[in-house]
Amino acid sequence: MNSLNDLERDAWLWLTSAPKRKRDGFKTMTLATRTLDGVNARTVVLRKADADAKTLWFHTDVRSDKVGELSRHPKATLLFWDNRRQIQLRLSVTTAPHTDDAIASEHWAGLWVGGRKMYLSEHMPGLPYPEPYPGFPAQFGENLPTEAESEAGRNNFLVVECRVLTMDYLHLSRAGQTRARFRYEPFPGMEWLVP
Description:
The chain has helices spanning 4-17, 65-72, 102-110, 113-116, 147-150; strands at residues 28-35, 38-50, 55-61, 75-82, 87-98, 157-171, 178-183, 189-193.
């Protein structure tokens, strides 16, 4: 059986490598936020993870509901599931938005034009629309914008920084489940949990 230190090391190794691997189970996660009348959850793409800083980042449209929800209640939950590994990671985080700073600029510069295309929408995400809407101006269709055209999306681009407070690790197995908790703030620690 792996030690707590091994499990934590492996979990952060998977998280830091997932953004670079197209089919990695941890490349996407469910973000759960608090709303005015309950809870909201949606899938977002993990863009970067830093094991030393215990921090993850994802991108979103600055006009999306999740941005308002996180500004009112910056604590959130990130839920990862890797079907191949049969491992769930549940992270309790506190979030910080980045729009017009070095972090946002670094992420924008690293985003290819296909990703930038999604920030060219003239409409706020989630608004009713009379017909199916692709999320970007119709002129692009299946074409990619040029680098210069993609810059119009920069004003709609937001990076969410997620500082991990705790990570709950769960491995499902016919031979027996393994569960552990890793605390980073306010008091670091790690412990085995009953699954």
